[in-house]
């Protein structure tokens, strides 16, 4: 029997996220991202559709690889302007009761002590509905923004991330006992100091000697997302991640990644079921196949090829402006998203060109859209889930709010009829809804830092 399919809305606090150019569509409302009501209305709509969560992407640099300039990104609204997604989450949580919030935060540029406090605060403010997408960055512009010359080497960033994770685990899991806060008005004792401890950490990158500033939040550690599919990324995911985001490829490739990460997790003493994989997908649907195809053809009129190349250039680490339309492109050694280069090599061949790349980006990104009636899309979601072992999908927006409303109207009811999508939310925190427990299990690497087992 097919397991329950999970759905996240995949979005970003900016006008142009994945499908570049869609903000120019006359019905698209993504230019309203600075309006708080845009996000609270969105949250209500997703909860009506019983979405598991909204997954916020984020970058802290500008896309300036294409043409060695940020001009095309600024002109095309390619993930700029981009606001801080953590700010809007409490407002969305205030108008919902069950929707989860996965937020991307780049640990390379986040001081771990302050970051740990922000995540605990968000977990409190959402009632235990916060998740963290762990990223190490891929933009040189982001590195320069904080005073570095450029990106740390790809695998070295993961080495830094391993230490970062051990430090925030100590703060989240080891600094406060669950029963430290007693609020004893008679004795004027708010918290028992014998149950709150200072964390001592001294490593290659970080030194911290402090207690965590927040009392234990409902989940303590947020639900942990990660999106690396390179060999080093998979090893990191197997150690830390609960949910892994993979990009669309062939089914056999997704199955291989899914099986590999789960197998690696088992070697680390975890259960294969402790890790759920989510596939990125773009859905265009309607009452009939003809209606969906008509929408697709309409949307294609608003695609920006330049903006699509700007986004691809940054994530692949290649300046496509240097190449003629049919000139073979040399990938070389990139410090950007290594797995993206591997995917493109498989899709277009090792000697691909701008023309081949643009042929892949029919709707303004490398993510090929799935177009069909609600029945056809529901069959595709079930098929991918059954054949690859993924747990769910991160659905990118095209025209907003149309794209998610169409999924809610035409796809979700059919998934429910087939018994593969919930008809109501389970109780509890974000982690409880996904895994059945509020805190990380004892088999997770964070567990070693609990209570008095706080290692240096």
Short note summarizing the structure:
Residues 10-325 form the Luciferase-like domain. This protein is an alpha/beta fold.
Give your account of this protein's structure.
Belongs to the NtaA/SnaA/DszA monooxygenase family. 39% of the residues lie in helices and 15% in strands. The protein is an alpha/beta fold and 456 residues long. An eight-stranded parallel barrel has the order 1-2-3-4-9-10-11-13, surrounded by eight helices. A two-stranded antiparallel ribbon has the order 5-6. Strands 7-8 form a two-stranded antiparallel sheet. Strand 10, helix 8 (251-267) and strand 11 (276-286) form a beta-alpha-beta unit. It is globular. The protein starts with 5 loop residues before the first strand and ends in a 21-residue tail after the last helix.
Extended strand count: 13
Summed over residues and divided by their number, the pLDDT gives a mean of 92
Q: Note the overall shape.
A: globular
Cα-based radius of gyration, to the nearest Å: 22 Å
Total helical segments: 15
User: What's the order of the H and E elements?
Assistant: EHEHHEHEHHEEEEEHEHEHHHHEHEHH
Distance between the termini: 46 Å
Largest sheet: 8 strands, parallel, barrel
* Multimerization status: single chain
**What strand order characterises the main sheet?**
1-2-3-4-9-10-11-13
Structural class call reads: alpha/beta
**How much helix is in the residues?**
25-40%
The fraction of residues assigned to DSSP E strands is 5-15%
Which regions contain 5 or more consecutive residues with pLDDT less than 50? 333-340
């Amino acid at each position: 029997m097919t397991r329950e399919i999970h759905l996240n809305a995949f979005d970003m606090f900016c006008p142009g996220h994945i499908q570049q150019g869609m903000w120019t569509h006359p019905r698209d409302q993504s230019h309203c991202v600075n309006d708080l009501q845009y996000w609270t209305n969105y949250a209500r709509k997703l909860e009506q559709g019983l979405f598991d969560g909204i997954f916020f992407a984020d970058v802290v640099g500008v896309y300036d690889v294409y043409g060695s300039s940020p001009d095309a990104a600024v002109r095309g609204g390619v993930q700029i302007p981009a606001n801080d997604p953590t700010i809007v989450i409490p407002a969305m949580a205030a108008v919902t009761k069950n929707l989860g919030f996965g937020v991307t935060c780049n640990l390379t540029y986040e001081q771990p002590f302050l970051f740990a406090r922000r995540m605990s605060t968000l977990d409190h403010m959402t009632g235990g509905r916060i998740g963290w997408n762990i990223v190490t960055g891929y933009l040189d512009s982001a590195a320069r923004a904080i005073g570095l010359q450029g990106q740390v080497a790809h695998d070295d960033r993961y080495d830094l991330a391993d230490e970062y994770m051990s430090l925030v685990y100590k703060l989240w899991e080891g600094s406060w006992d669950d029963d430290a806060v007693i609020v004893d008005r008679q004795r004027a004792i708010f918290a028992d100091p014998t149950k709150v401890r200072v964390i001592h950490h001294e490593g290659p990158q970080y030194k911290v000697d402090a207690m965590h500033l927040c009392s234990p939040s409902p989940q303590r550690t947020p639900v942990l997302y990660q999106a690396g599919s390179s060999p080093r990324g998979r090893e990191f995911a197997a150690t830390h991640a609960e949910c892994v985001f993979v990009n669309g490829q062939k089914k056999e490739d997704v199955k291989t990644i899914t099986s590999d990460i789960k197998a690696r997790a088992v070697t680390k003493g975890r259960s294969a079921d402790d890790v759920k994989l989510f596939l990125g997908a773009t859905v265009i649907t309607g009452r009939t196949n003809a209606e969906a195809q008509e929408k697709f053809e309409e949307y294609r009129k608003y695609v920006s090829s330049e903006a699509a190349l700007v986004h691809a250039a940054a994530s692949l680490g290649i300046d496509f402006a240097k190449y003629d339309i049919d000139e073979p492109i040399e990938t070389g050694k990139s410090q950007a998203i290594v797995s993206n280069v591997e995917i493109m090599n498989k899709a277009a061949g090792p000697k691909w060109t701008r023309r081949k790349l643009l042929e892949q980006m029919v709707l303004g990104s490398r993510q090929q859209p799935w177009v069909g009636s609600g029945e056809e899309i529901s069959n595709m979601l079930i098929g991918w889930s059954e054949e690859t072992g993924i747990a769910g999908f991160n659905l990118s927006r095209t025209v907003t709010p149309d794209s998610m409303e169409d999924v809610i109207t035409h796809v979700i009811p059919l998934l429910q009829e087939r018994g593969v999508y919930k008809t109501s939310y389970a109780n509890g925190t974000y982690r409880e809804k996904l895994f059945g427990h509020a805190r990380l299990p004892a088999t997770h690497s964070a567990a070693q830092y609990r209570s008095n087992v706080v290692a240096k």
